[in-house]
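Quick look at the format.
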Amino acid sequence: MVVWTSAWLHGAAASDDVLDALQPWAESQEVRAADDDLATRLDLPGPQDPPAGPALLLAALRKAGAADGRLVLPVPGDARGLGGRSPFAKLAMRVGEAIVLPDAQLGLVPQRAAEGVLRWTAFDTGELPPAEHLPIGEAEHGMASTMREAASALIDLGVAKHRPGVREEIARTVASRPTPPWPQNVPQRALRVLQRSTEVEAILWVATEDSPGGALSASAIRARTEALRPLFDAVRAARQAAVAEMVRVLADRAGKH
């Protein structure tokens, strides 16, 4: 959503392409505003109204003066990008994902409303602090080096034991993730980093699951969690940096035409 809406706002994608690109995430997408005042301002359904389709959201973003969007992936202890305590920040933290459109002072949070239905709720965020910039190369290097450190730590702790079928588990986890199309001219390096972050995250989720009959002690579980936490953080940083690089390149190229 971040990349495609940014591409559309810069004239690098058609609205139909944006709507088609959302399909891998859910069969149906719907939109509403978090409060009545914002609903009136953006011509969106309010919290008590039947939700609208995503085409109305695109029109609302254009009306609000949105430009570049950015991806926020908050976790407990790291609320960067949410702008402090607010209904938007609270829901984004609970979901673990949000889109921020600073120029329009808007935030979007996706939630599963029902089977096959993804609902986007729009919030008025007010003015947010500038995003921290992490170069794509630094994010890629950080994820690779942190992965080596985590693997070494797990081996030292004795909780990195092989179990049958682990490669198949990882492959299934990766395959279960949506694979959306991307706008033309997105940087290939950013795509590679995004793909690698998905693969590493799949490894992480498999690594945090105990094999049948191989339950760990509470202390071993804590040690494993501490060893893997920096890698989870590095994956989040890499994903955000990859999306930010895509948005930046699309905006730059649109500005040259």
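Next, a different chain entirely:
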Amino acid sequence: MITRRTALTGLAALLLPATARGAPTEQLSVAAGNESLSLSRYAAKLTGKRPAVIVLHGSRGIELRQRAYERYADALTAAGIDSYFLHYMTGRDTAALDPKSSTKGSREAYDTGRFDGWSETVSTTVTTILGRADSSGQVGLLGFSLGGFVAANTAARDARIGALAVLYAGMPEAMAGKVKHMPPSIELHGEADQNVSIANGKKLIELARSVGADAEFVPYPGKPHGFDFSDSDPMTSDAIDRVARFFRARLAA
């Protein structure tokens, strides 16, 4: 339940000075065909083996609102979980999805043909993380918008994914009828989302439950697409806190 006290406490956290916030501690790379994609690691300040969460950005990349994504990394690392920001889109992907030179229809068609390829890149990243000496063997996925669809698609394909958190997204239609397994999942969605219908989030959770997964749907009344990227909306902190608590319970318990 979202309470006024929780919202105000979280809002205060959003206003912390920049010096109190985290930054990438390591820059890695992942191969995707002939390209090398960037992987930024935000490490928890703990010794020993730790779980990890791979963060998948929306169609316009992390750079558009990097600080908004980093707030999630701050919360996850504070919970003892390493965060990895994967720039999963190639140069060709970026060009094809540029809103200045494409239409909504062309972008949707392009996405449909790329979901499996993007998921292969995510799974390659999972292999890289699990091979690290500091890995506990537990990996989760956190996806936003397009990245949420990629995360859901990957979780249905890769049984190594221990937990899935999705914001304002769903399961790609081509995968929906093939799903036989899903990890524990949570989906957060603004009820006023005009970019990705809230029906997508509801269907994802229904699908996860249909194959026996523990799954939770969290609606945000009156909130639009990307509501959690606001620097002043108390629901930003609520979403971040829910995601961090979810992964801590599923991966770090």
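Residues 104-130 form the longest helix (27 residues).

See the schema section for token definitions.
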